[in-house]
Amino acid sequence: MPIIEVNNLTKVYTNLISRKQKRAVDNISFSVEQGQIFGFLGPNGSGKTTTIGMLLDIINRTSGDIRLFGDTHLNAARKRIGATLETPNFYPYLSGYDNLRIVAKIKNIGEARVQEILGIVKLADRQKDAFKAYSLGMKQRLSLASAMLSDPDIIILDEPANGLDPEGIREIREIIKALGREGKTVFLSSHLLDEVEQTCTHVAVIKNGKLVKQGSVQELTSRNIARLEADNTDMLRTAVRSYDGALSADVRDGAVFVALKGGNLSDLNRHLAGQGVYVSHLSEARQSLEEVFIELTS
Ligand SMILES: Nc1ncnc2c1ncn2[C@@H]1O[C@H](COP(=O)(O)OP(=O)(O)OP(=O)(O)O)[C@@H](O)[C@H]1O
Ligand SMILES: [Mg+2]
């Protein structure tokens, strides 16, 4: 059972004065399984924050369904979710510790967990300093700490690494990966392709409110892509799909593009011949997530 399931989700904003409408999220569907680190990728203005707002029930959806833990009653599910929004919202003059204490008090969480979480996000030594004196990376980490405080099953993060330097990005990445190892489900939005490639297990790509691709990072970034041609493209695709080392096979421009998990081209070729399919063309085509993304969103 998917832990997050979204079906035909749509958000139309209407400007109250001009009555002009904006379809920010347009009929998207995706699902996230427990333990996945799911990256929601898209250019500026593509609808990432709007989607997250609807998942958190902060933004009213125009139509579509959302199920969290298999349940459409989002209110009940909310207790098992930790989230951060685009800009961390803390009291600037209070220390990181005091800010977390306020959140802990509201959620009935004890002192031991506050200290534990400060350790996890590496803010233990700076916990007494005022929030306003924190670097951007520290602010983002405090925001993560606040989302993780109640030990939620799902952690939803809107651009957790936005604006950070490589060291700051690396720190956030380590925390998110540790959550994945604990079996937590993480849903994060980002436009940092390299980061998503290194952190996430799965991604969905959104453009102008529409979902253009989803799959495992391995499948999408598979640097091992082969381009194949044969007299009968349909037969070729069927034969390719029966190959153990094939993650996916798509037909484009009269050729079959296959993402290979392992194996090699001659092994694939042998398999195809065994199926009675003889290729007229076989070559390697490499792609990174960045190339995939640009191809999908440009
Ligand atoms: N309250 C609102 N009223 C009208 N339009 C809005 C509102 N909020 C967002 N939009 C529009 O909806 C679209 C999607 O915005 P959204 O903030 O969800 O995108 P995003 O992918 O999070 O972008 P970014 O990468 O810049 O954070 C944009 O065109 C935006 O201008
Ligand atoms: Mg946004």
Summarize this structure briefly.
This protein has 298 residues and is an alpha/beta fold. The protein folds into two domains: 4-218, Rossmann fold (3-Layer(aba) Sandwich), CATH 3.40.50.300; 222-297, 2-Layer Sandwich (Alpha-Beta Plaits), CATH 3.30.70.100. It has eleven helices and 13 strands.
Describe this structure in words.
The chain contains 11 helices and 13 strands. By secondary structure, the protein is an alpha/beta fold. The chain is elongated. The structure holds adenosine-5'-triphosphate (ATP) and magnesium ion (MG). Adenosine-5'-triphosphate binds next to strand 2 and helix 1.
Keywords:
298 residues, alpha/beta, Rossmann fold, Alpha-Beta Plaits, 2 domains, six-stranded mixed β-sheet, four-stranded antiparallel β-sheet, 11 helices, 29% strand, binds adenosine-5'-triphosphate, binds magnesium ion
List of distinct ligands in this structure: adenosine-5'-triphosphate, magnesium ion
Strand content: 25-35%
Distance between the termini: 34 Å
Computed structural class? alpha/beta
CATH architecture of the largest domain: 3-Layer(aba) Sandwich
Element layout with pairings:
Layout (H helix, E strand, L loop, with lengths): L3 E11 L6 E12 L4 E5 L6 H8 L7 E6 L5 H5 L2 E4 L11 H11 L4 H10 L15 H13 L5 E5 L7 H16 L3 E6 L2 H7 L2 E6 L2 E7 H5 L3 E5 L3 H9 L4 E7 L2 E6 L4 H10 L6 E5 L3 H9 L1
Parallel strand pairs: 3-7, 3-8, 5-6, 6-7
Antiparallel strand pairs: 1-2, 1-4, 8-9, 10-12, 10-13, 11-12
Helix pairs in contact: 3-4, 5-6
The chain binds adenosine-5'-triphosphate (ATP) and magnesium ion.
